[in-house]
Amino acid sequence: MSLLPHSPNCYALNRSNAPSTLLFPITRHALFCLTATLLLSACGGSDASDNSNNDSSNTPELPSQPTPPTIPENPDSPNNPETDINWLPAGGNATIAADISRPFLQIMPNLPSSALGGVSPGRELFITEWTPANQGRVLFDGVGPLFNANACTQCHSAAGRKPIYAADGELSDAILFRLGNKQGLAHTYYGEQMQHQSIDASIAAEGKMRYTITASNGNQPTGIQFNFSATDPNQPLGDTAISGRISPQLVGMGLLDLIPEANIIAAADPDDNNQDGISGRVHWVQDGKQQRIGRFGWKAINSSLRTQNANAMSQDMGLTTSVFMDPNCTANQPICWTAPNGGTPEVSDSSLDAVTDFMTALAVPERRVADLSTFNKGAQLFTQVGCASCHTPKQKTGASVRFPLLAQQTIYPYTDLLLHDMGKGLDDGVKEKNAESYEWRTPPLWGIGIVARDPEARFLHDGRASSLTEAILWHGGEAENTKTRFRQLPATQQQTLLSFLNSI
User: Fold this and answer.
1) Of 32, 189, 325, 452, which residue is the least packed, with the fewest Cβ within 10 Å?
2) For residues 112 and 118, is the Cβ–Cβ distance under 8 A?
3) Three-state secondary-structure class, residue 389
């Protein structure tokens, strides 16, 4: 089933000042509309599961709204969760059935045709394999000169998370590496992120990363050690730390973008005034001329979905936007600055907005509840051991002019979008903006059980955990007491809690 049909009108362009170097200038509008229908088969390097499923019909083939679990007859029963017993659809109006073969990168149901003008071309841009400048693909050129991947689907899959670790120590494109130190300083040559690919041999890639498994020390499960080989031996890492970052599942991104800032602020308790051991804090970041709340990324460094997308285009693909106008090159990489480019910027505002529309419209798979009583018991344990103190089960979205179906929705993302001290074991040595090296944004858990079905699935920021149990046992800092309470649970109750996680 196709994610979306192709919009007959493509999407509206800004006709007031669209220079010829933009991705979709007026003179290329008809060409884009003609070629957009061919892109699925043209992207040979993209995720095959995403590309082989094109439906050229003009009517969206979208999943119907699933039926939520039945509300218990006795809400006061002690077996019911303390947090919420009235289980509404996991993503509100953006919920899809959970028994689909490709649960991620699906579009929310009942999307009005008025929204397709952005979402449909945004999907095409998401799955397209971009090329270097001056190679004849004027619609999709400008990748690099240094980059990690040339298509979004090289990291993000409709079927789940892509495999990361091969048996021989090789790594896939589904993991990238942040660089820095505890003072927040980037490497003077490599910058804030390692790029292992370049557009041609005249520009050397920055290096290659491999991994080894570290043994358990008795208190913590097995982990991952990364080993960097620099292309230029004169540019060692020195005391710069390496932090692996896996590509999470992209579900409900538009819903998270709509959680009001006031709600996030209200949940923060940086001084632990309630003395519960949890001191989540807001990550304030600079967004243009404004200070806004960071909510996307492993350390919540991006304040909006649009900025998150622009950041990924810049850091991961080497594509410039109006948000990040400079090439992804440091001052010590002069040949990188003089390489051919695909225009200024390489991705127009119209294109960036289209990708953001697509990401906003991504749906949330419904929970997979085989037995409501067991599910409720697991939800109650989730709260009792302390998981819900950070992984807040329920949120509510605010207003949305562009996608009114997403407005005022009760959703279950299991996150507070706050930074938390996760202890020494998860200290990656890299401070990002105002997030310390030991601080991490609470990752949303919706869809985590679908990911866990894959025996190759990995968890936590660098994929060091091979199971949900290992992920829990890596928790420290503010979550140390929660981890201890989980360990102290009888085996049957541990399994009930894990069954709940696998259901959300």
Assistant:
1) 325
2) no
3) helix
User: Could you give the CA distance from residue 130 to residue 321 in angstroms, rounded to a whole number?
Assistant: 15
Q: Residue 464's CB: how many other CB atoms inside 10 A?
A: 25
For residue 349, give the nearest of 357, 339, 341 by alpha carbon. 357
- Which of 504, 503, 434, 458 lies closest to 252, judged by CA? 504
- The answer to whether residue 193 sits within a structural domain is yes
Q: Please check whether residue 225 lies inside any domain of the structure.
A: yes
pLDDT in tens, 219-252: 789 999 999 999 999 999 999 999 999 999 999 9
- Is 363 exposed, middle or buried, given 0-12, 13-18 or 19+ CB atoms closer than 10 A? buried
Phi, psi for 194 (deg, rounded to 5)? -80, 130
Class of residue 453 by CB neighbours under 10 A (exposed 0-12, middle 13-18, buried 19+): exposed
> At 395, is the secondary structure helix, strand, or coil?
strand
CB 301 within 8 A of CB 294: yes
Q: How confident is the model at residue 357 (pLDDT cuts 50, 70, 90)?
A: very high
In a domain, 416, yes or no: no
pLDDT tens digits for 90-112?
999 999 998 778 899 999 999 98
Residues pairing with 285 in the sheet = 292
Residue 71: inside a domain, yes or no? no
Domain that includes residue 184, residue range: 175-246
- Please name the residue that has the structure tokens 């979709």: 24
pTM given for the model: 0.84
What the block records as the tokens of 48 is 């095959």
Number of domains in the chain: 1
Tokens standing for 305? 């979905």
For β-strands 95-96 and 364-365, DSSP reports them as: parallel
